[in-house]
Predict the 3D structure of the following.
Amino acid sequence: MTNDKVTNILMAGVGGQGTLLASEILSEVLMQAGYDVKKAEVHGMAQRGGSVVSHVRFGKKVHSAIIPEGGADVLFGFELLETYRYLPLVDPNGTVVVNNLRIAPPSVALGKEEYPEDIPAKLQQHIDDVRVVDGLRLAEQAGNSRTVNTVLLGALSNLLAPTHEQWLNAIRALVPEKFLKVNLEAFELGRGIVQC
């Protein structure tokens, strides 16, 4: 993805998954790489369990933080249904990087609706480049299930221009010291599974 075009990354997840920290790290690494970066966040009603969406746009010069419908180059999903919900914002030639995790929304938990089956296949009906990541398994392998967001950033890092060292510097800048080692391990595990 080049420096002269504005690139759009839409991050979608559920409260408590670390979506906002991931968008901070992503914005930091892009700034370190010399891009103009704009970010906007939308939080759901609940601190935990509500929808969380972050728009990250970067390039030589970015004028607006909001990604237009059909304009996302990458849909970066922390949960399957939340990812599928934001599919209309993705360019048909874009990429989806999605965590293979199901979190039942309240309507499903209350038995009013059913969780859709085989969301990765539904995504692939619209987007050719869909990369499914077993984020929880890799986070647990790193030593902490709460590092799924960093695993997913590792997978995403293969699609973007910043160097490996710039990614590590951004993580070091934003992750508290006591969680740094496990997050760096989680990032490396994610980086190792989705190659361009």
